[in-house]
Amino acid sequence: MTVTIKDIAETANVSIATVSRVLANKEGFYSEKTAAKVRQAAEKLGYRKNTAAVELVTQRSKVIGVIVSATKTNFANDIIAGIQDEAFKHNLSVIILYAGESDPNQQHRALQTVIERSVMGILILAIRPVDDDIAMLRAANIPHLFLSTSFDSQNLPFIASDDFRIGYQATDFLIKKGHKKIGIAAIDRHTYIGTQRVLGYQRAMADHDLPTKPAWIQDGHFTYDDGIEAMKTFGAKPELDAVIGTSDLAAIGVMNQAETFGLNVPTDLAIMSIDGTQMVKIVRPQITSVTQSFYEMGSRGMKMMLQRDMTKFESQYTPFRIDEREST
Amino acid sequence: MTVTIKDIAETANVSIATVSRVLANKEGFYSEKTAAKVRQAAEKLGYRKNTAAVELVTQRSKVIGVIVSATKTNFANDIIAGIQDEAFKHNLSVIILYAGESDPNQQHRALQTVIERSVMGILILAIRPVDDDIAMLRAANIPHLFLSTSFDSQNLPFIASDDFRIGYQATDFLIKKGHKKIGIAAIDRHTYIGTQRVLGYQRAMADHDLPTKPAWIQDGHFTYDDGIEAMKTFGAKPELDAVIGTSDLAAIGVMNQAETFGLNVPTDLAIMSIDGTQMVKIVRPQITSVTQSFYEMGSRGMKMMLQRDMTKFESQYTPFRIDEREST
DNA sequence: AAAAGCATTGTAAACGTTTACTTTTCGTGA
DNA sequence: TCACGAAAAGTAAACGTTTACAATGCTTTT
To answer: Per residue in A150-161, pLDDT tens?
Structure first.
């Protein structure tokens, strides 16, 4: 039914080895005359390479697997764009698997899928797998790299922002603008990222001899609704004079709730977000953000994959900057 | 190096056929006693199935390929969620390939990749491939379906919204709110979707005996910036009393530019968007939208794939509704 | 004219599964 | 005890490539 190189070989009157060589452009192993015959036959028969066969015999695939959490925050698109552009340059395919929102089952299945496909590398976005899955990942012996998550222990390679510094500098920025009572909203302290940001925040406050209160730190999962909730807890007459939203959407949630309370941003309350995606520019007032280099995380991650030797993977931080806008 | 069923067979002291049957859960073909031995050996050796080998011999894969345009509009995530959830239920993997923003090269490569992987089905999101690629797609004899794009001719199967009706009803809604001079922003009339929406708009205007002007229709590609540009063209003292943005972001662009001009939304200018993603709820004022059923497009599309018989694919429209908010 | 070297092509094994077909084992009824 | 049938297990071919190695033919060197 389907056309194979064997059919081409017959049509072109050569051996399958020759066909294979021509089609794979193994230069120097065939004459142009034969090549022309082969290519023409392939074209005529409507030949399509069978990737499964190729991967089986070569024991490798030119595919990078990307596992993404289907979170409601939106930076993943930028990271993926970075991965994609870099992969395209090197003729690699990218397959993306969504792993739900912190659903361990889906995560496990996604991981299993890419491992069984023996992809040449695995990029894991903003997900911290359970220990069993990490063990599986290691056993699989496939280069893998975490993006936009960092770890304290485990020595897993990652490319991410330095979240302690993000927390510190965001806070420091607000303090230098004259704020003294600064809150932080929708932070997930079960994640390493979350703890680091809080630590950075606390250090900055301490460095400026500013007191903090536990109630100024509102837990959540970086979502819009968590931002709203956090602001509701801070109240209509908040003690605070500035709030850091731990994602763009969270910050927007804080801002909208603040305005519902009749507070003016930035005069009554300054707001700052962490991420700096398009979101912060389309709302009014535009939100001052710690802008992360998501695209770069993706392209750097992809480049690292190209070395293939995982032992050389070195965790690194991507730069971030503060973009001042109207909300501070 | 890697563990194969042959290794398991040796360890468990059975034939590879038995191993294969146990591991594939072909019930009725093995005794529980043997099964236990096999499973234990597999576990012990750290066996991983080789998908390439499976696909080669079975001539089929349990993978759905999804091709997405990496557009700056954001509804794709919802469609993908629908696809993903449905696929998960049926134990299928989903691989997603980004095809750039209307870059024919990337589209071609993405298509080629999924075809060569002989996926069991292809879902194409918001992309209208060039004719050559459509021919290739057909020749490949793989079930395929377009989501969120419709076609006049070609008889390609799709699941999308009825864009004529969207255009009509959005316009009709505004007219019934008392508006008479209605514009439409950031519409791409090179797409079928675009022409249909404009036709719907024009018909609604005509049905109410309202005149229109060519300048009221501003071309673009559904982006935020196109929304801004459109509004700039309409001017600081626009002739219009309402504008339809052809995506959420486009509508937000229109709104932000209108406010830059000092216009009040909705009193000076009513604004309406088409899509109805989270975006319209996080901006102030919240935007009245034609809300499409993106998630449903995804899950319906996936369900259709399950039939596998492409000749039975029937193009269909998913429902939409109008959600009134603060911008009208 | 034979030998050597090179370019080109061919042969066949290998990759890791699944599965049609065959063989063995085992329980049951006569 | 034996024949029979069902259950369990085994044998081997097949899937479509790549590639090491072998073979062929041609050109160049001696």
So the answer is: 888 778 999 999
Round and report the angstrom distance from CA (B49) to C1' (D12): 21
Give the closest nucleotide to A59 (alpha carbon vs C1').
Answer: C15
Backbone angles phi, psi at A72, to 5 degrees: -80, -10
**Cα gap A191→B173, rounded to integer Å:** 46
**Under 8 Å between Cβ of B242 and B271:** yes
pLDDT tens sequence across A286-307: 999 999 999 999 999 999 999 8
Is A56 within 8 Å of B61 when comparing Cβ atoms?
no
Angle at A260 between CA A259 and CA A266, to 5 degrees: 10
Which residues in chain A have Cβ-Cβ distances shorter than 8 Å to B106? 88
Residue A68: partners with Cβ closer than 8 Å, 6 or more residues away: A76, A80, A96, A97, A98, A99, A125, A126, A127
Residues A47/A51/A52/A57 CA torsion (nearest 10 deg): 100
A288-292 sheet: strands from edge to edge: A217-219, A182-187, A242-245, A270-275, A288-292, A320-323
Strands in B217-219's sheet, in edge-to-edge order, are B217-219, B182-187, B242-245, B270-275, B288-292, B320-323
Asked if B38 and B22 count as a contact pair (C-beta separation under 8 A), the reply is yes
CB contact under 8 A, A56 and B52: yes
How many other CB atoms are found less than 10 A from the CB of residue A54? Answer: 17
Q: Give the nearest nucleotide to B29, CA to C1'.
A: D8
Give the torsion through C-alpha atoms of B194, B200, B204, B209, to 10 deg: 80
- Phi, psi (rounded to 5 degrees) for A326: -90, -10
- List CB contacts (< 8 A) between A84 and chain B: 70, 98, 100
User: Which candidate, B135, B12, B117, places its Cα nearest to that of B61?
Assistant: B117
Both tokens of A294, joined, read 């998501």
C-alpha to C-alpha distance for B223 and B248, rounded to whole angstroms: 9
Domains, chain A, in order of start with CATH, read 5-49 (1.10.260.40), 62-161+294-319 (3.40.50.2300), 163-292 (3.40.50.2300)
The residue whose CA lies nearest the C1' of nucleotide D9 is B18
Which are the contacts of A114, defined by CB distance < 8 A and separation ≥ 6? A65, A67, A95, A97, A122, A142
CA of B127 to C1' of C9 (A): 44
Mean of per-residue pLDDT scores for chain B: 93
Q: Is the CB of B45 under 7 A from strand C?
A: no
Strand C contacts in A 51-90 (CB under 7 A): 53, 56-57, 59
Q: Which residue has the higher pLDDT, A291 or A26?
A: A291
- Nucleic strand C near CB of residue B58 (< 7 Å): yes
Q: Among partner residues B116, B249, B282, which is closest to A256 by beta-carbon distance?
A: B282
pLDDT tens string A154-197: 789 999 999 999 999 999 999 999 999 999 999 999 989 999 99
State whether residue A321 is helix, strand or coil.
Answer: strand
Least confident range from A206-215, A301-310, B9-18, B238-247: namely: A301-310
Measured from the CB, is A60 under 7 Å from any atom of strand D?
Answer: no
Residue among B313, B293, B276, B278 at smallest CA distance from B123 = B313
Round to whole Å and give the CA distance between A220 and A202.
18
The answer to whether B127 touches B96, Cβ cutoff 8 Å, is no
Nearest CA in chain A to B70: A81
